[in-house]
Amino acid sequence: MTEKIGSFLWLFLCVFGLSLILEKLWLPVLKKKRAGQPILEIGPSWHAVKAGTPTMGGAAFMLAVVIGFLICLPALLQRIGIDNVKVMAFVLLYAVFCGGIGFFDDYRKLRNKRNEGLTAPQKYFLQLVASAVFLVLICGFGGVGTDIFVPFLQKEIVLGSFYYPLALLFLTGMVNALNLTDGLDGLLASTVAVLGAFFLACGDVKLAVTGALLLGVSIGFLPYNAHPAKVFMGDTGSLFLGALVAGGSLVAKAPLTALLAGGVYVTEAASVILQVGFFKLSGGKRLLRMAPLHHHFEKCGWGERMIVLLFTVAAAIFALLAYLGG
């Protein structure tokens, strides 16, 4: 484990440093452009004090990942070989495309001065297109097969033609799950840091590279995003991170491992699905005080720092379970 972490420490440090620097340079630009976050009217009333906090901070750390990857490209080629680098380039391209969808969504929110950008169907359609193109690239040109690793069973299973619809569901589902989790100061960045550390410590080379990128960018963003946040990552950042997690784990044949290690995101997405389903079936009753789950804890009187701490500890427990699963 120590050897693997050390092998990609330089990539982590490069992305971490770039994230710190570029975010510091990007923040005054956002303030000058008055790119303040509109707050959702149906959200917790106390979130109104966050109105005007600069958003789209994810654009800076997305650029940091791209630049860091290119700077470290010679070392990556030597360490993991051209085939693995090519596949990771496809993952990065997918993440940037999804981040671009988020950037357009954030821009529309700012232009309309409301927390309403792209509609849910529009956003999902674009994500579906990006995911389909990504699948074509990794399967047609990246040599990625239809087999996946099953935790605890310590074996790989071949899904055949079932792989493609399931992969599309996994990609879009994970991207949106991380997007839903980005609702409190430092929540997504903290949990992504835990997931990145897990990927870095116990994955194959593709998962380790993904982990180095995730860990570097999340820790580099946290000084600006921890409560009280100086800047939000916006959909630009959350969709980018979601695609990086989903794409990196898929090419490493580890989507089930990612679902287990990313149990916090699965739980957040499930809370929304259950809330909507229960509301419709019960004729207007609510299962939770508010969804996603982190808002339910807020409605119960928990402070943001305590919720973020709870979710980060939960993320570590899920990562430990995934580690035990192999």
Which labels suit this protein?
globular; two-stranded antiparallel ribbon; 14 helices
Poorly predicted runs of 5 or more residues: none
What characteristic shape results from the CA principal axes?
Answer: globular
What is the radius of gyration computed over CA atoms, rounded to a whole number of angstroms?
19 Å
User: How far apart are the first and last residues' alpha carbons, in Å?
Assistant: 13 Å
Helix content: over 70%
| Class based on secondary structure composition and strand pairing | mainly alpha
Largest sheet: 2 strands, antiparallel
The tally of domains stands at: 1
In N-to-C order, the SSE pattern is HHHHHHEEHHHHHHHH
Mean pLDDT: 92
With strands numbered from the N-terminus, the spatial order across the biggest sheet is 1-2
Which percent band covers the strand fraction? under 5%
